[in-house]
């Protein structure tokens, strides 16, 4: 059983007035971002886009310049005060009506970033991953065993969302019966297209306060009866985070929820979609159940999908960057999705190659001091999914093009009709 999945067009629309503005949401929801990124890598890997809905910004689309920028956090800031980590932000000096600053440690510079990251990092360390492993395998296996074989269902809703939402609830010790609220908050608060109008900003703010109120109840409960492993208890016991302002508390919740949800959810969906698109690579996993191949395939799927398409930095001073004059306060979009297909690092990068020798070099989790703090949890969940599907000899057939997220930040899937078959 096979369904034809379209590939990205080989050229951009000649009538397009701004073909190299890769922040346009439709490029991502229509899966047309690959060709303009390829043009940028070939002709202008550091490119100033003068006109976009987010204002002027620099696009950096190749691997080495992104590493270079990420290694200089004092010069290329992540601070929320300058606009934070997405190309949408304009900084505290240019807040719009209905917009509220929500500091989070990924959108901070040292030393604040260092102290807060150091607080939560142990919750995602090697010993914690080992503690989670058996439960992750059990939950993944149990969910897969509920999926119908030979019947159509939505992979995103039935598998990707369920597994990642459950893990988020466990990490926060969030009330289990209310855990699906976490998914709704993640979708709403990770959407950089929700800043367009006052109405959208007000709706987003309402979601943030709804989330904040729910977690304030949890915070107060944990203050009286702290747990041992959950993130709220860990924050409460930290000098760096126990006295956070309301805005900072909500900002860090958004970071941990969106980061923990979208990265893993969309990688799990990419497992289904990507391996269907490259059946010869899927066949390698079907015939070889070596755990090391599953781990390598996990990294390759992360590289190919890149669940967060970009991170933004802001120049703190005038500086020359590989021959380009960057001015203080310029926005710089680091397109991880493009760097992960940089031909000089990943030959034939538009293809999934599950035994690719350097798949682990991907930038899907970022690079430098802001590399994703929860990367090991995402890796555990995705590798477990691959292994449990292998164990059951189950294949995912995608029946139609998925509905994708309409944004240039979260690079993901809303819905994907599939059927399972035994092989």
From TrEMBL:
It comes from Sphingopyxis fribergensis. Belongs to the cytochrome P450 family. Residues 1-21 are annotated as: Disordered. It comes from the Bacteria. The keyword Glycoprotein does not apply. GO terms for molecular function: heme binding; iron ion binding; monooxygenase activity; oxidoreductase activity, acting on paired donors, with incorporation or reduction of molecular oxygen. The lineage of its organism: Bacteria, Pseudomonadati, Pseudomonadota, Alphaproteobacteria, Sphingomonadales. CDD domains: CYP142-like (cd11033). The keyword Acetylation does not apply. This is Linalool 8-monooxygenase. PROSITE patterns: CYTOCHROME_P450 (PS00086). Keywords: Heme, Iron, Metal-binding, Monooxygenase, Oxidoreductase. Pfam families: p450. Residues 1-10 have a biased composition (Polar residues). Signal peptide: none annotated.
């Amino acid at each position: 059983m096979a369904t034809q999945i379209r590939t990205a067009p080989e050229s951009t629309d000649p009538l397009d007035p701004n073909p190299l503005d890769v922040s346009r949401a439709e490029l991502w929801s229509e899966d047309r971002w690959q060709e303009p990124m390829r043009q940028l890598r070939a002709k202008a890997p550091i490119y100033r886009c003068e006109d976009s809905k987010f204002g002027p910004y620099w696009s950096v689309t190749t691997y080495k310049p992104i590493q270079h920028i990420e290694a200089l956090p004092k010069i290329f800031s992540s601070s929320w005060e300058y606009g934070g980590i997405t190309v949408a932000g304009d900084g505290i000096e240019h807040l719009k009506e209905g917009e509220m600053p929500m500091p989070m440690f990924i959108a901070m510079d040292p030393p604040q970033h260092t102290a807060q990251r150091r607080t939560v990092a142990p919750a995602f360390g090697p010993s914690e991953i080992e503690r989670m492993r058996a439960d992750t395998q059990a939950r993944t296996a149990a969910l897969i065993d509920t999926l119908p074989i030979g019947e159509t269902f939505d992979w995103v809703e039935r598998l990707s969302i369920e597994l990642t939402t459950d893990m988020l609830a466990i990490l926060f010790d969030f009330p289990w019966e209310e855990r699906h609220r976490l998914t709704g908050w993640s979708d709403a608060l990770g959407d950089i297209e929700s800043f367009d109008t006052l109405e959208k900003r007000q709706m987003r703010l309402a979601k943030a306060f709804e989330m904040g109120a729910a977690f304030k109840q949890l915070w107060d409960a944990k203050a009286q009866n702290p747990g041992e492993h959950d993130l709220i208890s860990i924050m409460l016991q930290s000098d760096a985070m126990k006295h956070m302002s309301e805005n900072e508390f909500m900002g860090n919740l958004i970071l941990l929820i969106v980061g923990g949800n979208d990265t893993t959810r969309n990688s799990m969906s990419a497992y289904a979609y990507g391996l269907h698109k490259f059946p010869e690579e899927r066949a390698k996993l079907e015939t070889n159940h070596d755990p090391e191949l599953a781990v390598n395939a996990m990294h390759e799927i992360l590289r190919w999908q890149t669940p967060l398409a970009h991170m933004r930095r802001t120049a703190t001073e005038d500086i020359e960057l590989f021959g380009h004059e960057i001015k203080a306060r310029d926005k710089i979009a680091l397109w991880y999705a493009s760097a992960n297909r940089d031909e000089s690092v990943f030959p034939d990068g538009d293809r999934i190659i599950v035994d690719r020798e350097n798949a682990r070099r991907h930038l899907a989790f970022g690079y430098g001091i802001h590399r994703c703090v929860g990367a090991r949890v995402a890796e555990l969940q995705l590798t477990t999914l691959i292994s449990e599907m292998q164990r059951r000899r189950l294949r995912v057939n995608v029946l139609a093009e998925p509905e994708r997220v309409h944004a240039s930040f979260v690079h993901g899937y809303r819905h994907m009709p599939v059927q399972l078959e035994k092989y």
